[in-house]
Amino acid sequence: FTLRKTGQFKYNNQLWTVGDIVSLHEAKSSKVFYAQIIELHENDLCENRAKIFWLVPKANIGVTDESKKVHHDTFKPTEFVHISIDERFISMDCLTFVMNVPNLFEYRQHVDSDYLVNTYTLSHSKRYAKSSSESDGDKGKKIGRAS
Prior knowledge:
Layout: E1 4-6, E2 8-11, E3 14-17, E4 21-25, E5 32-42, E6 48-57, E7 80-85, E8 90-91, E9 96-99, H1 105-108, H2 124-127, H3 136-143
Antiparallel strand pairs: 1-5, 2-3, 4-5, 4-9, 5-6, 6-7, 6-8
């Protein structure tokens, strides 16, 4: 049966919604990993799957030495950052609900976003750089100057 995309479904007496924060436990250790649901899928056989965006502590960005990486047992939205999209469909059996989508831009921007896969995100400076069709001289003429 074909999986079809949905915005939410009920699973194990929990309403799961795109944008929710979930945790996954590593089988070989007690480490907990966090992710944000960016897609939910279901089929006629009641199989439920999610596509997730991995989250890591901001303190670990750029740290290559595993022994120096911090690990959080609790999720605080302001201390995590999105790093990569998992291309697999994760079974809901593997996910533990943590919280609904946090009320922060960096989490809300990924809700209902079909553009996420293979996307290049522009930096702030590139997004707001002046257009190549405008020069500083043209801007002065458009604004007009009082004498």
